[in-house]
Amino acid sequence: MGHELEKVFPTNPKDYQLYEEVGEGVSATVYRAFCIPLNEVVAIKVLDLERCNNDLDGIRREVQTMRLIDHPNVVKAYCSFPAGHQLWVVMPYMAGGSCLHIMKFAHPEGFDEPVIATLLREVLKALVYVHGEGHIHRDVKAGNILIDADGAVKLADFGVAACMFDTGDRQRARNTFVGTPCWMAPEVMQQLHGYDFKADIWSFGITALELAHGHAPFSKYPPMKVLLMTLQNAPPGLDYERDKKFSKSFKEMVSTCLVKDPKKRPTSEKLLKHHFFKHGRSNEYLARAILDGLPPLADRFRALKGREGDILLNRADEDKEQLSQREYIRGISAWNFNLEDLKSQAALIQEETPNSELDVNHGTNYANDSVQQIASYETDDVANVVTSRKEKFQDLQDFDGFLSTAFPIRPLKALEGYFDVSEDEIKDASPNGQVGMQSDSESRMLMNQGSHEVNSESKNTRPENLENSTFVVKHLDVSGRQKIFSGSLLPERVLSHAKNTALPTERDELHQKYHCERNYSGPLLSRHSSNHSSVNLNDESSEGRVFQRKGRFKVTSSDAGNKVATLVSPAVGLTASATLEAATILPTLQFIFQQNVIQREQIVKLLKLVEQASGHHVEPSGLGGGELSQLGLQPSLTAIKERELQSYILQLQQQVDNLADELQITKLKNAQLERKLYSFQKERDDINEIDIPKGEYSQ
Ligand SMILES: Nc1ncnc2c1ncn2[C@@H]1O[C@H](COP(=O)(O)OP(=O)(O)OP(=O)(O)O)[C@@H](O)[C@H]1O
């Protein structure tokens, strides 16, 4: 088990040769690489610190956990070090890639039962170890199950793992969660009583279904809807009719995991004893069954990426508005989600599901389902709120100050002590992108990047008076290419058209037309504007208690009692009575409330635009003054400030929480070191004991 530890991996980027890209996640790109001094092929996960400014805790935890871990079924980190503005994490190279990629490439309908039993047994062994060490993985899914060339299976990605060690209570329920919604346990979504490692057992059950069908249940729906479906529907499972090819024991095993009450779920240890896992075979069998005949990982990865590109290209001639709606409804933009996962899932669905089922936006399945409509409405709300806040931030004169307090330390400095980052590297770091880091002001610049780019983009393409009405969020994607997602309260072209040519009446018609066609008034938001958007999203969370973090979903507990609530969807004029836990509904209501305030502000801006276009001169003060208050349109700056403060407090609370986690990890490390020291001392004493008689003898 410990043999990998014996090698000392170099911490200089020059000692590695990067080969092809073999994987892409929310926060990182993974390359096959070669460690020159050790003459060994490795995988290097490259994280761009500039893009992770506000998620250093997550990175720190991931690397920390990966380095402490030592189990044949868990991917460990050999070492980690900075390289320019990046952080490199060196890991064993898993030549087979992830189960998700293998399924997408060669088994779109899912794997056969013996393969599933083998894969899951190995993953379960990993979970027994991880739970035994006091961790909750929190992101068990096919995309995080990696296979080596010889069929060895390892659980990867500790980006959102949590430590259960806390004031001595290893199983303490927690009040926050990060995860991918399809795999997320109901208690995690509800946040009523916290959760523990049993959340991984739920995700494990969902992963079993994913491996059996080629995709996770509900994977074609937008995130908010997944949350509601998971909470309201009966747990998903293998169907006795539809899934005839699977054994009774498999079905039973899945249903044991997918019980809503976590207390009724088995522990990983107990589950491992389930007779289903007796069907598991050897690693060699696995290699033969799913890896034989596959092209090298990098080729597969390229092919899959190409396919995703084709899917997008095929849609290129679609009406752009529809396309953005489609992406929007999948939650990519609105929830700032794990884009790769969503893209992958979308690709799987497109291959397997008829279009009618797919088109959740226009499809009839949606039409009469009020809960679904509420879900999509909520998704809109979030996007609107988030982007509108982006705009508001630009208006705030003290934004810079706010950011500097929100992220007071420089990235590499913050990571010092956690990776192989030396004091010297930090001191000598040059701001020009060589091994080093940015200054405080540069950090803030990076934090501000999204908003500055919004301005510059606007300046290039539109006159002043349209800048504040249209948002263009520009960002760098993994490969450094720039991507632009655009959106506005009205579609951009409508605004442009209005600006250039249209008479007021035409504009009204266009406004009417597009407003009807697009039920979503919110702008699109890119996931890679994470620096900025996370701040904003956290901002929202101060009231909505729903966060985005590291491209995933994060919910914090809102201490609400159990209440019965009725949801009304103003977007569609439908009323849905839902007996939901208040904690589930509150965020929605809060979003709607916020949305209201923000939409009023948007209306003010539009009014201004209309007035400007029609030649009326509007004094800025006039907008916020008596006329608007008469209309009830005066935006409340105090409320905005208050929300920002709440958000800041929440961020601080999170930081305290994270520090407590780290303290526990350090304590754990200390305990390990003490144990080692003790055994060394014991060895030394033993040797001494042997030496003493020798001495006596020689005297
Ligand atoms: N050691 C490895 N060997 C081979 N491929 C790997 C390795 N680690 C990761 N990958 C590939 O790279 C992808 C992304 O890696 P990873 O999941 O660690 O990144 P991430 O940004 O943390 O992802 P996520 O989107 O789950 O947060 C994986 O899904 C997998 O296909």
TrEMBL record:
<dbReference type="InterPro" id="IPR017441">
    <property type="entry name" value="Protein_kinase_ATP_BS"/>
</dbReference>
<dbReference type="GO" id="GO:0005524">
    <property type="term" value="F:ATP binding"/>
</dbReference>
<dbReference type="InterPro" id="IPR000719">
    <property type="entry name" value="Prot_kinase_dom"/>
</dbReference>
<feature type="compositionally biased region" description="Polar residues">
    <location>
        <begin position="431"/>
        <end position="453"/>
    </location>
</feature>
<feature type="binding site">
    <location>
        <position position="45"/>
    </location>
    <ligand>
        <name>ATP</name>
    </ligand>
</feature>
<keyword id="KW-0175">Coiled coil</keyword>
<keyword id="KW-0067">ATP-binding</keyword>
<feature type="compositionally biased region" description="Polar residues">
    <location>
        <begin position="527"/>
        <end position="539"/>
    </location>
</feature>
<feature type="region of interest" description="Disordered">
    <location>
        <begin position="524"/>
        <end position="543"/>
    </location>
</feature>
<keyword id="KW-0547">Nucleotide-binding</keyword>
<dbReference type="InterPro" id="IPR011009">
    <property type="entry name" value="Kinase-like_dom_sf"/>
</dbReference>
<feature type="domain" description="Protein kinase">
    <location>
        <begin position="16"/>
        <end position="277"/>
    </location>
</feature>
<feature type="compositionally biased region" description="Basic and acidic residues">
    <location>
        <begin position="454"/>
        <end position="464"/>
    </location>
</feature>
<feature type="region of interest" description="Disordered">
    <location>
        <begin position="426"/>
        <end position="464"/>
    </location>
</feature>
<protein>
    <recommendedName>
        <fullName>Protein kinase domain-containing protein</fullName>
    </recommendedName>
</protein>
<feature type="coiled-coil region">
    <location>
        <begin position="642"/>
        <end position="676"/>
    </location>
</feature>
<comment type="similarity">
    <text>Belongs to the protein kinase superfamily. STE Ser/Thr protein kinase family. STE20 subfamily.</text>
</comment>
<dbReference type="Pfam" id="PF00069">
    <property type="entry name" value="Pkinase"/>
</dbReference>
<dbReference type="InterPro" id="IPR047173">
    <property type="entry name" value="STRAD_A/B-like"/>
</dbReference>
